[in-house]
Predict the structure.
Amino acid sequence: MEINPELLDKICRNMIETILLCLPHATKGTIYRIGPPPELRAVRVASGKRVSSNSHLEWGLPERSDYNYPGKSWDQYCDKPGGILEAMGWCVERQKSWTSDKPDENIRSVRKQLSGEREDFHHMEPVLIPKAHLYSPHLPKPKYPKNFHGQEIWQDSNYEVGAVIKIHFLDHTIKRGDRSTKIIKKLSRSLGTELFSLYLREAALKAQKDLEEERFRMCNELAHELRNTLTKWSFLYSAINHEISFLREQWENLLSDNYPDVTFKKHILDKLKSELEDITKHLDHDDREIGKELFKFQDEFSNLALLPQQGKMWVRNKLRPKWFEVFSRASLSVEKQTKILALLQELENSLFLGQDPKLIKDLKTIPEDLKNKWVKIAYSSFPSSGDHFLDEIEEFLDHPYLNIPHKHQSRKIMRALKTLVHIIPEVEYKANKALKDIGKGTNGSSIIFSGLHP
């Protein structure tokens, strides 16, 4: 993708600033651009670090880095027998994140491999862009480089890696799969949309310069690009709902701790796991793959804190079909199948225990006002609950008797997200005005920027 360097730097800085604003324990952010195939050249685009407790960031690339321009090609950072293992190679080839939450054991630390020195705590996330957005189905497929096994990468993937985000953290404040890594993953999707949007904008400007007689078509394309750019704000809703899901998870954990005789979601999933382990022992080798997929689905569901109705659909659309597939491969008695189906029904019912009036009423370990606010917030979503809902969450997190992990961090994140949400109406107003002016044929290119940056 050909993108104007100044615009690319601007959007990368915006993404780094947003991530550091949402994650108070993050200290530095860097974004690397991954060039087009087959070279897939990785070049450091923007780097910013926190210089104080406030939101001020210091920008600038390090004077010495292998990834400063012209960067490193695929052949220089990919995995090779006997070569240096790099996290960049992992992220690009496998399209998966890399978390250094145990720096002393980080097998992909270049510094550790070369000099034995330990690096810091950090997380690297690939930015994925759908191939369907980049290439016409009527054109030949792009040529991708090969790994050291001689296999062309990304053949089984619908995505390309357009960039890699690297975020550094204070010691011992990040773990694989924790909330911070999930937030970075969600924001990486927003950056992927943004990069694609900028790619479209560049294409439109080039066509406008070369073909002035198609001005009307170009104006429509610019309007479309502007709308795409505004969609970057949608990550705010996901981040807010992610925080709400954390509060929901903590509420259900509190109920589980106070009602040991009540069977909650985790206990039922443990029973299903035990049943599945027993069944897979007697399956043929080929059929065990179905069992592995079901294990994966159940583990994934165990780590999700969905709203009850969403969780119910998850069970019906993912777990039940897989279990029926296991039934078709295994010789199970009717009694055994009936037992498993009963557990699945019990699992669906357990998803609503967090809103059980009797359990809520009998819970005496926290104040009544805190209990009522907690249930209301935990089983709501944004923005359907209205803007005032953010004030209620902020007030709830300030409650002196609320005792949850990372309470201080959650409070700071919610305040930051609330500030950003309040900016959206102004941005939308200026965007609509810009679109109206473009429709009238008024100096479109300059209006786009004034509409995005007050």
About this structure: Residues 5-210 form a domain with the Beta-Lactamase fold (CATH 3.30.450.40).
